[in-house]
Amino acid sequence: MFSEHQTPKTLREILSQNCSPSDRLVAALEEAAVHVRVAKGKAVVRQGEVFGSFVFIRKGLFRVSHDNQVGEDTILFGTSGDVFTALHSYYANEPAVFSLIAVEDSEVWLVSFEDMRHILSAYPDMMMWMHNLMIEQIYAFEKRYMFFSNKSAEERFINFLRDRYGSLRRAPIKYISSIVPLKYIAQYLKITQSTLSRLRKKLVSNQNE
To answer: Is 96 exposed, middle or buried (0-12, 13-18, 19+ CB in 10 A)?
Structure first.
């Protein structure tokens, strides 16, 4: 399983990715956080519903999806150490526009918006964390746009394997389908599942040469 290749992240480690948290901040966040186990296929955040927490991924694998008139689209993946929320809900109390769904059995911490706002007002290092997190996520969305710009299907797949998902990157290509269902990778890459299967076979063949 994917999570066997991960080291679970503590809240301190997650905060440390975007700021230098004080002991008091870590203690306040730990007190506010609720540990939740999420079964494979279950949604933490559901598109169309108002959501009320920040999600800190302790371990596991999630995908962010959006349903539209054409069908379902996988926007990105989240792994141990990533943070997610429904910004429409946080900013304007509006329904979430994306769902956050577990690809495998996973664990998260939930911190309510009320607790998060209190912590942000009480700890300047948390405000710095939030600032850096938002910049990082805007950058990620811009990078995703460039990811698809003037790239062939094969280039997009190779770039996907080289991306920030460490456990995916370390896994041999022939085992990728046992970690993430091909249909979700195909959605992310905006290619058909048959095209993705062809690319996998080609790259596995190249690895074995």
So the answer is: buried
* Long-range contact set of residues 110-113: C-beta below 8 Å, sequence gap at least 24: 110/33, 110/34, 110/36, 110/44, 110/53, 110/54, 110/55, 110/56, 111/29, 111/32, 111/33, 111/34, 111/53, 111/54, 111/56, 112/32, 112/52, 112/53, 113/52, 113/53, 113/54, 113/89
Tokens describing residue 101:
């769904």
Q: Which residues pair with 79 in a beta bridge?
A: 61
For the chain, give every domain's residue range.
Answer: 2-148, 153-208
d(CA 209, CA 203): 10
Handedness of CA 182, 188, 44, 26 (dihedral sign): positive
Helix axes 113-122, 23-32, angle to 10 degrees: 170
pTM: 0.83
Spans of the chain, pLDDT less than 70: 1-6, 163-178, 204-209
pLDDT of residue 167: 47
CA dihedral 103, 18, 7, 79 (to 10 degrees): 10
38 residue type, one letter: V
Q: CA 12 to CA 21: how far, in whole Å? A: 7
CATH C-level class of 2-148: mainly beta
